[in-house]
From TrEMBL:
PANTHER family: TRANSCRIPTIONAL REGULATOR, ARSR FAMILY, TRANSCRIPTIONAL REGULATORY PROTEIN. It comes from Bailinhaonella thermotolerans. GO terms for molecular function: DNA binding; DNA-binding transcription factor activity. This is Transcriptional regulator. The lineage of its organism: Bacteria, Bacillati, Actinomycetota, Actinomycetes, Streptosporangiales. Keywords: DNA-binding, Transcription, Transcription regulation.
Amino acid sequence: MRRAHHPEAGEITLTGVMAALSDPIRVGLVRVLADGRERGWGELQAPVAKSTLSHHLRVLRDAGLTRTRQEGTRCFVVLRREDVQARLPGLLQAVLAAAEEDDIGRQVSVKGAERPA
């Protein structure tokens, strides 16, 4: 399998990040990953087809918001919080706070985790 491209921290752009965060599913994925834990793609639940979830994860990766690691046939993803903070200070915190307040991305969760009421 081909190696995934991850932009360097200096290549992360405001417009790229904002475009990636223009979809509620992607905002939900960022909310789930904001706990700092690396997650297997199979752990992530969203009300979309697996191929669509894969697309959303690729958009986040291409924008520099996440890092994907492959181990055998499994893929794992983690939020690049430090890189985004270094390049765009305060942006991620503001997005996460607004998403929480406006309840954006609530439909995304981790398998086995209790969904918020």
